[in-house]
Amino acid sequence: MQPRTRIPEFAELENYKNLGLLTQMQLDLLYRRVNGESYQQIRNVYSISKTTVARAIMRTATCRSWTKGQSGGGMTLLSLPDEMQFKKLVQEMADDLNCITTSMAIAVCTELQNRRLKFAARVLIAARCPHLLAKLDDYFPSPSRGWLNHIATRLSIRIVSSQTIDMLRRSTCR
Q: In Å, how far from its chain's centre is CA 35?
């Protein structure tokens, strides 16, 4: 299914689908809403509840995967595309040291979240779901120390103090 109205964000969503980060069902469900179908019509097509329709639209707008029958569970701090961008930005900032300060990591994460929040808002408006805008904050929790440690381990990045970075730079820049 294709949306009758196109916004630039849809091309990005389709790219994520092609990369396997989103599902075709997610985009079809979103595009049905963009094309004016009601929650009830979408529920009838997919045999899902109204709450599940809203959850699927929210997860799609925020670039998080969703599949029919998926249970709730915790919300990831960043979507997979944003995690990949986080890693790329951190590696650029790390100057081959493979480490970053906590404040730098939080700043990068916050910037990515703000960008995704605006992206999601545009998608929700195009999908005729302005009532879901108020729930967007729930999809973007503040970065915690635990999350930073978890993502650093997963992405093979070290989070260190600024003094440690200075010491590493001095020892490698002879």
A: 24
Task: Assign residue 158 a region (left: φ > 0; alpha: ψ between -120 and 50; beta: otherwise).
Answer: beta
CA distance 145 to 167: 23
Is 159 in a helix, a strand, or coil? strand
Question: How far from the centroid of its chain's Cα atoms is residue 142's Cα?
Answer: 13
> What radius of gyration do the chain's Cα atoms show?
19
Q: Measured between alpha carbons, how far is residue 146 from residues 33, 40, 54, 155, 159 in Å?
A: 37, 40, 29, 14, 12
Q: For residues 35 and 44, give the distance between their C-alpha atoms in angstroms, rounded to a whole number.
A: 16
Global pTM exceeds 0.90: no
Within 13 Å, how many C-alpha atoms sit on residue 148's CB side? Answer: 20
Query: Which domain, by its residues, includes 157?
Result: 8-172
CB atoms under 10 Å from CB of 48, counted, come to 17
Q: Are 134 and 27 in contact (CB under 8 A)?
A: no
Total domains in the chain come to 1
Instruction: Return the residue matching tokens 């493979």.
Output: 98
The Cβ of residue 140 has, within 10 Å, a number of other Cβ atoms equal to: 19
User: Worst-scoring range by mean pLDDT, 14-18, 47-51, 89-93?
Assistant: 89-93
Q: Is the pLDDT of residue 26 over 70?
A: yes
> Is 2 domain-assigned?
no
